[in-house]
Amino acid sequence: MIKQKTYETIINNLPIGFTTVDENGVTIDFNQAAELITGFSKEEVIGSPHNEVFHPTPGEEPCPLFKHAILRKEPATAKEKTFIKKTGEIITLLVSVAPLYDSDGNFIGGVEIFRDVTEIKRFERERQHILAMFAHDMKNSITTSIGFASRILSGKLENQNECLKIILDELRTVETLITDFLEFSRFEAKEYKPEIQEIDLCNLIKKQIEPISIKARAKNISVLFENDKDQGWTITTDEKMIKRALSNILDNALKYNKPSGKIIIRLKDSGEGVLIEVEDTGIGIPESKQVYIFDAFYRISRDNKGSGLGLSIAKKIIETLGGRIWVKSVFGEGSIFSFFLPRHYSVKSP
Ligand code: ADP
Question: Does ligand 1 come within 6 angstroms of the Cβ of 283?
Fold first, then answer.
């Protein structure tokens, strides 16, 4: 006979999220893995209705524990669901649920086990995006170049220079895709080792804003910098990489803005670290697409000429430096990309 205490220890140490609710859907148990996956502590969830804590992403059905185990009193296995973590991050869970009955056959609640498959799903999507990149973007450019080169060789063309210009543009597109792809691969292979030094973040941002402001002026877009305080923004981090991440985010704020729009960069104190926000008044990102926005090679529209790697590289840099990046956006109105950086990089932080 396993003692109650031993049973509790086993549940608590299961390498999988585990939670149980009573017949009204109120949480009565929540193990350590569940805390780690969702970001909520046991104390925060016990006694609260399960569906008040577990927020499905907008447009998703309620949590399977509620829908299947409590309302329909039926089991459900391996349901893939996206949820909003306590931090606001969107995660994908693989969830299995079952109703609970006591020894007399009375319905007493439901049990749920879940696994975080966010990374696995991201890898699967990225594989598809990479295939699409090679199959469409690269192939289109190469086919166009071959077409124009053949026409030049046939000797029947009068406007050869125009054709050569098109070929050059297409080859540059392919070159950018390959360069970005190689850079992304280096990050994936964890070849990037931070070069840490003390930097003044405020100065760095001001320098980054200068070239963007010049390009923005041409589109009648204003660039503003709001700073929480005038000094004391010294942090230890990788300057070159922060510049790279910030420039990707700023380039997007300009690229996806509307004429006469605004870009606001905010630098805020955030206790343990600093918070940088880049707000734009551009086209915004539909809610249903926000979960994919940091995937490698993901583009909402394949009409733009980007590689879809800017945000995924920015995310990799920021996370390697111990930070976190997220987006809030209203489709048609604009977006705010925010990232947090610890004041001091430590090898353990990533
Ligand atoms: P790229 O800009 O090269 O396509 P990114 O990884 O930088 O690649 O961005 C991925 C996609 O996210 C873009 O194709 C675009 O659809 C969307 N996106 C990024 N930033 C913004 C923004 N500030 N406003 C609206 N959409 C954006």
Answer: yes
Report how far residue 304's alpha carbon sits from residue 143's, in angstroms, rounded to the nearest whole number. Answer: 18
Cβ count near 17 (within 10 Å): 22
Instruction: Give residue for tokens 């002026």.
Output: 217
Work out which ligand 1 atom sits closest to the CA atom of 299: 14
Element holding 227 (H helix, E strand): strand 222-227
Atom of ligand 1 nearest to the CA of 334: 24
Tell me which amino acid residue 299 is. R
Q: Is the beta carbon of 252 within 6 A of some atom in ligand 1?
A: yes
Query: 284 near 331, Cβ under 8 Å?
Result: yes
Pocket test for ligand 1, best of 246, 262, 277, 293 (most atoms within 8 A of CB): 293
pLDDT digits 0-9 by tens, 315-347:
999 999 999 999 999 999 999 999 999 999 887
Rounded to the nearest angstrom, the distance between the alpha carbon of 349 and the centre of ligand 1 is: 27
CATH code for the part of the protein at 121-188: 1.10.287.130
So what's the architecture of 2-116 in CATH? 2-Layer Sandwich (3.30)
Q: Is 304 in the pocket of ligand 1 (CB under 6 A)?
A: yes
State the pTM of this model: 0.76
Architecture of domain 197-342: 2-Layer Sandwich (3.30)
